[in-house]
Specification:
This protein is of the alpha+beta class and 289 residues long. It is built from eight helices and 14 strands. Helices cover 30% and strands 27% of the residues. The strands form four sheets. It has a seven-stranded mixed beta sheet. The protein has a three-stranded antiparallel beta sheet with strand order 12-14-13, sandwiched between helices. It has a two-stranded antiparallel ribbon with strand order 1-2.
Amino acid sequence: MNAILPNDLLPTNVDPSDDEAVLALFESLALSAGRAIMDIFEAGFIYETKPDASPVTEADRAAERVILEGLRIALAGVTCVAEEEIAAGVVPVLESDAILLIDPLDGTKEFVNRRKDFTVNIALVRKGTPELGVVYAPARGLLYSGRPGEATEVSITPDFMPAARRKISVRSAAEPLTIVASRSHRTPETDEFIARFEGADIVSVGSSLKFCLLASGEADLYPRFGRTMEWDTAAGDAVLRGAGGRTMLIDGDPLRYGKCGQRGEADFANPWFIADTSPAADQGFRWLG
C-alpha cells in the first residue's frame, strides 16, 4: 500500500505507460493534498468568488501546489491541466495524446458549507479516454483508484495512511434504481430526466463521489445535464470505467477528454452526460432519443 511521501522523495521519471507506478504516484499525491486540505478545513478559512461565480479557498490552491509539484517531478513530459491554473489564465497547449487532469478540491461548495462531500482528483487521459484516476475524499477517509479493468476502494486512517484495500465493481441494475445527483448544481433538465424513472431512490451527493458510488455498487445512474469541466469528471470517470461502468453523451457516444481547441471549443467544458452501470440508463437514452 502507498504511504504519503514528501515531494522531494517521490520517484522521478515515472514511465507514463506503467499504470501501477502512475497510480501509486497519484495516490501518494492525493493523500498529501488531502492532508493540506484537512489542515485548512479544521483551522478555519475564508473563501473568494471566481469570475465564473464558483468559490475558491486557500485549500484549493494549497492542494494544487502539492499535486503539480509532484507531477512535474515524476511525469515531467506529460502536460498538466489544473483547475486553479486555468482560472489564473495558465492554459496549456495540448500537443500529446496523454494529459493529466487535476481538480485539487472538487466540491468546494461542500467544503465551504462544512460538508464532507469534497474530493481530490487526479487523472491520466490517453487519446481522449480517462484510463487512470484517483479520487480521495479526505473527510470521509476513503480513496478510490481506477485503471482499465480494475477499480479499488481504500480506507484511509485519520493520520492519512492507507489501511484496507478492496476491489470494487458496478452492480447489476437494482429495483428500484438508485440515482445520484448533484447536491449543489441540479438543473430542471436533470430533474425532468430523473422523473422518468418512477419509484427510483434519489441520493444527493457533492463532487466526484457520485461516480464512486456507482463504481462501488451503491448506485446505478448519474445524469448530469449542466456545466461541468473535464477536471471535475476525469478521475471519477476512470474509476467508474475501471469498475465496469460507462459515461456517455446523450447521443450514446463515450465522454471524451482533451477537447480544448477542438471543434471550436473554447475551454475544457463537458457536454451533458449520463454515467451508469451499463443497462441502467437504457430507459433514459430511449427518452432522450
